Amino acid sequence: MYADVRGARLFFDVDGAGLVRDRATMRHKPVLFVVPGGPGGDHSRLKATLAPLADKAQLVYFDYRGCGWSAPAPPGTHTMDTYVDDVEALRSHLGLDRIGLLGISYGGMVSMTYATRYQRHLSHLILVVTAPDHRFMTRAQEIAAERGTPRQQAAAARLFRGGFENSGQMRDYFETMGSMYAQHFDTAEEQSFQPRFNHEAINAAYGVDLHKYDVTDRLSGITVPTQVIGARHDWICAPEFSVEIADRIPGAQLRMFENSGHNVQDDEHGAFIDVVRGFLDHPPQHSPEEKKGLRMPAVEKYVKWDYTDLAATYTQRPSYAPGAIDRIVEATGKPGPRVADVGAGNAHLTVDLLARGCVVDAVEPNEAMRTIGIQRTEGGTVTWHVGVGEDTGLETDAYDLVTFGSSFATTDRLLALKETARILRERGWFTCIWNHRDLNDPIQNEVESIIRRHIPDYGYGVRREDQAPVIIESGLFEEPTTLREPVLHRVPVEDWLAAWRSHGILENQAGDKFPAILEDIDAYVRSLGSDELEIPYETVGWIARLRPRR
Question: How many CB atoms lie within 10 A of CB 461?
Answer without folding.
Answer: 12
